[in-house]
Amino acid sequence: MLNGAFGNKSSTLMTEYASLLGDAVLRHRARIAEQSARVEAELASKIKSEFIANMSHELRTPLNTIIGFSKLLTDHNRRKLPDADIVEYATLINDAAGHLLSVINDILDISKIQSGKYTLDSREVSIEEIIQACTNSFRLMASEAGVTLAPKIAFDLPMARGDSIKLRQIFTNIISNAIKFTPRGGTVTIDAMRANTGGVTVLVRDTGVGMSADEVAIALTPFGQVDGGRTRWREGTGLGLPIAKALVDLHGGEIEIRSRKGEGTEVAIVLPSRNTVLTVATNEPQSAQSARTL
Do residue 211 and residue 280 come from a single domain? Predict the structure, then answer.
């Protein structure tokens, strides 16, 4: 009887101990979850605050330029302006309006992409022509920045299937970033070659400031800024790379960023061949096909 009573007591103690241990584990997990949620909320709040501050700056700067120089032009009847000044003011207004439109378009694009309402107008396109057009449009910017722009396009690039406007946006965002973050005297190289899978591989390399792995993750986050302060040395919305990545994904491709601090950055984009895209589109459910309009 004593052994039986002792055994029952021991079993009860073990049950109580297990219950207490389980409660302790649950409380510990709850604290960890609460702490993690608090950190995520603080990070989201910080990103939101930085985004609002940066957007305010990005929108006000071109608006102030437009308002200021247009005011000078409206005073032309009272104070005659030289023709050279009129042309200069109109050029500054046009540039500021273009920048403002670009910021607004980026915000609208990322909103559509995140809501799943973004579609592609896919057809057979020449990646060579798209890269050549992008390179030519950046020659003046690169020259003024003191950066050498060096395109290297293979002669045997296959045709691809995609949205030519969106593909150009991908390369525009990436090349623009490469030039902006490359100091004077540096080089930006654009290599386009046939991929082993039959598609196209495009490598955009720069000799710029480079990024750490954590900074790459931030740069790929919508509205994320590697240097989010108002005094950052290069301006931007923090949407260029996220939009480029989203558009590459919509084309069924892959994007990879390899970078090291002080050594520059390489962005590798692999786009599938037109045959691969057509096969995938044919086998996809109707809803998926209509979403990508392939």
Answer: yes
Q: Determine the Cα–Cα distance for residues 205 and 199; give it in Å rounded to an integer.
A: 20
Last residue of a domain, one of 100, 118, 136: 118
Given pLDDT bands bounded at 50, 70 and 90, which one contains residue 26? confident
Residues 136, 50: Cα–Cα separation, whole Å: 34
pLDDT in tens, 207-223: 988 888 888 887 777 66
pLDDT of residue 118: 77
Helix (H) or strand (E) holding 269: strand 264-271
Rg (CA), the chain: 27
What pLDDT sits at residue 44?
64
The answer to whether residues 170 and 75 belong to one domain is no
Per DSSP, the residues of 231-251 read T-SS---S-HHHHHHHHHHHT
Please state, in angstroms and rounded to a whole number, the distance separating the CA atoms of residues 195 and 20. 59
Using CB atoms within 10 A of its CB, is residue 243 exposed (0-12), middle (13-18) or buried (19+)?
buried
Contact 178/204 with Cβ under 8 angstroms?
yes
The verdict on 49 and 137 lying in the same domain is: no
Angstrom CA distances, 110 to 29, 33, 147, 232, stand at: 35, 30, 29, 23
Q: Which of 35-49, 114-128, 176-190 has the highest mean pLDDT?
A: 176-190
What range defines the domain where residue 113 resides?
1-118
